[in-house]
Amino acid sequence: MKKANSNYALVGKVEANFSIESVTIGLSKFADDTWDFFDPNLERHNSEEGCKLRIEWTKFSNVLEPLVILQLKVLTYCYYNGITVRKIRTKRKSIKAYTFCQNCKNIINLFISVYKKRADHGHNSNSSIADVNAKDIQLGLNNYNFANTNAIKELLLLLCQPQVKEQIEKITNKSFDTAWTEYDVQQFTIPAHKPKKGKYKDGTVITEDLVTFLITTSSSDVKSLLQRMKINTFDEMKYVTTDTINFPIEIDLLSAFNDYKDYRIFNLEQMKKRGRRDRLSISSKISKKFRAKYNISINKFKEELERIQLGARYLVMQFTGARYSEVISFKNGCVNLKNGNYFIKGTLIKNVSDRAITGTDYWIAIPIVRDAIRVLEMITTYTLHDYLFAPNHAVVLNVKSRPLANNALNGMLNNYLCKIDLLRKYTRIKEISKSKFGKRLIKSVKPEYQLSSHRIRHTLANQFLKHRANLVVISYHFKHSYLAAKMYNIPNETTLGYGNIANEIFTSPVYNAEVKREMTESIYSPNAVIVGEGAQKFIKSRTEFFAGEISKGKTEKEIMNNLLKRDLPFADVGLGLCGGKNTFSNDEGVEVQPPCIGQLQCNPLRCKNAIIPEYKIEHWIAHRNMNQKMLDSGKFSHATDYLKRQINEANQVLAMLGFNGNS
Predict the structure, then answer these.
(1) How far is CA 365 from CA 29, 336, 345, 362, 598, in A?
(2) Quick one: pLDDT at residue 598?
(3) Residue 482: enclosing H or E segment and its boundaries?
(4) 203-207: long-range contacts at Cβ-Cβ below 8 A with a sequence spacing of 24 or more?
(5) 3-state class of 336 per DSSP?
(6) Model's pTM, two decimal places?
């Protein structure tokens, strides 16, 4: 039997006193029929449905034998406990609850597929995983649709390891040995994952005219509401000349909002007295009083206010590019002023431990986004939710404040499009039904224009590219962390997958211009002069990269031609280039955030993420001369120290680049 090459190493170990009675996994015991990982006290679990963080073993008992289920439980426990097979020199990362549950369900479903195939071929011995051979596994793989092929192979490799076999034998009291080897696992072929019907392919973006329609309408809704309430708006751009909200023009909207808020608070008090949360009918006295005062019913006022709320939510998502899991972390008071710029403070979910500190990540907040958040914060004054993306019912009777589910948010976005598209250019009424309260429900949007949080994110990435934003700018904005110094890992594949960026990059003439060759050579040529705080590390990586490529028999010309085929993994920040790492260590060895967070305010001489190539000499000359002119004018005497510091730094950089002239 062939053996695998020594490309893999076993990492971690299971505790010596392993027993099914004492061992816990997640929030459950090993012996439990359901393993539960959903912790309502963890903010990062808000973005997941509880069922996705549970493994219900009893669901598989009608297909899999009890011994097979027990063997799989031991395997997945070892995987959960840190036992894993990794390629040598690959750093091991901790696994999140959602990823763990998905990977475990995939391996379980694989064996369900394997046993069904075996039964079709007349095999009756399905009582143990040891009955299965490599051919059976391959047939099962051909018949199953996996999203994470690497995890499947990793778990199959894990079953081959003596340490895992020993634990299975110990718990089951039966001998266990797989009929496949590491070599077999390396030879397995897994078909490409096919998305479910109705799902959009990665990179599908909203059409240009629909984006324009959504942005102009929602921006006008938000600004019209604030202006009618006599609240100054941050955004000064004009979108439409008419008032787009449907409140009577003659009413005092701020007064009407306050009366509506008082009504909602009154309802809360009534619910507390009843001891339950339910739908309270509006008393005729309150309704008549509100209509007489404002010439609009309370229900109509509520519907219009919620329509504007949906527009505000769309704006936050469209201009931050935050994932669903991130946008639902935005809370009341999340807008912060930092280094002279406004940011939304929230929590990054993806690729971060479930138990990591929350509320320490930032998204850029342009003026219209700040206006949208102001509207959302006004609504929380009567819903009493901490989260800006939360249900519109109030938090009462000790009900914990939780954000919206992803399906609910996507449904609301499509509902907003239905409400604003009066000409039915983008939508059509698919179904009109009546609810039990006699209210007509309009459902449906044209399939080609279905909105979702992820599709909005892809659309923003595509818009960035159309406005010639560098991939590092996009990566910063979308929290795709990578390091440009690792030259073999550029451009970032995740970023390229967003908004059809990869296809557009290699068809755009901008990226094939001669200027790109000059820039590439000034950065990557082995003898090219590079200065700045990040220069030493970059030059070291550049030297190692060229040495490795030359050892493979490539010439310097071939290496440079290969680099020219890739997008430059740097953001041009005027005076230098940003290499795209999220954090770096300061002089005390503490991990700190760079000063930019993506908005491209950079001092490339001081930031360890930045480098300054030779072709930037003319930029530094202009920078120095501009500051000298301001200093000589006498109009900026209040900033004398700052201007002198800028001039000295410019002279320092020019000297480092080998320029000693004066102009």
Answers:
(1) 45, 9, 10, 9, 12
(2) 40
(3) none
(4) 203/458, 203/497, 203/498, 203/499, 203/500, 203/501, 203/503, 204/455, 204/458, 204/500, 205/455, 205/458, 205/459, 205/462, 205/499, 205/500, 206/449, 206/451, 206/455, 206/456, 206/459, 207/449
(5) strand
(6) 0.71
Element (H, E) at 68: helix 66-80
Share of the chain above pLDDT 90, in %: 14
| Of residues 617, 520, 533, 532, the one with CA closest to residue 570 | 520
Q: Which of 557, 601, 553 is nearest to 575 (CA)?
A: 601
pLDDT at 394: 77
Q: What is the pLDDT of residues 452-461, one digit of tens each?
A: 888 888 888 7
Query: pLDDT higher for 399 or 75?
Result: 75
Q: How confident is the model at residue 568 (pLDDT cuts 50, 70, 90)?
A: low
Quote the mean pLDDT of the chain.
Answer: 78
CB 291 within 8 A of CB 297: yes
Percent with pLDDT over 70 in the chain:
71
3-state secondary structure labels for all residues of 202-265: CCCCCCHHHHHHHHHHHHHHHHHHHHHCCCCCCCCCCCCCCCCCCCCCCCCHHHHHHHHHHHHH
Residue 505 to residue 245: CA distance in whole angstroms: 40
What is the rounded average pLDDT of the residues 249-271?
88
User: Shortest CA distance to 80 belongs to which of 57, 98, 60, 62?
Assistant: 98
Residue type, 623: H
User: Could you tell me the two tokens for 357?
Assistant: 């500190």
Q: Which two tokens stand for residue 573?
A: 């920040």
Rg (CA), the chain: 30
- For residue 602, CA distances in Å to 475, 572, 585, 605 come to 16, 10, 17, 9
Cα 499 from Cα 455, distance rounded (Å):
8
Say how far apart CA 597 and CA 615 lie, in whole Å.
25
DSSP 535-553: HHHHHHHHHHHHHHHHHTT
Phi, psi of 448 (to 5 degrees): -70, -10
* Among 79-83, 307-311, 443-447, the least confident range: 443-447
Q: Cα separation of 661 and 621, whole Å?
A: 9
Is the per-residue pLDDT at 602 higher than 90?
no
Q: Which of 195, 191, 163 is nearest to 176 (CA)?
A: 163
Task: Give the CA-trace dihedral at 156, 159, 164, 166, to 10 degrees.
Answer: 180
Structure-token pair, residue 274: 């009843």
List the beta bridge partners of residue 362. Answer: 345
CA–CA dist 577, 571 (Å, integer): 5
597: alpha, beta or left? (left if phi > 0; alpha if psi -120 to 50)? left
Q: How many residues does the chain have?
A: 663
What integer is the mean pLDDT of 14-27? 67
Closest C-alpha among 323, 349, 329, 353 to residue 96: 353
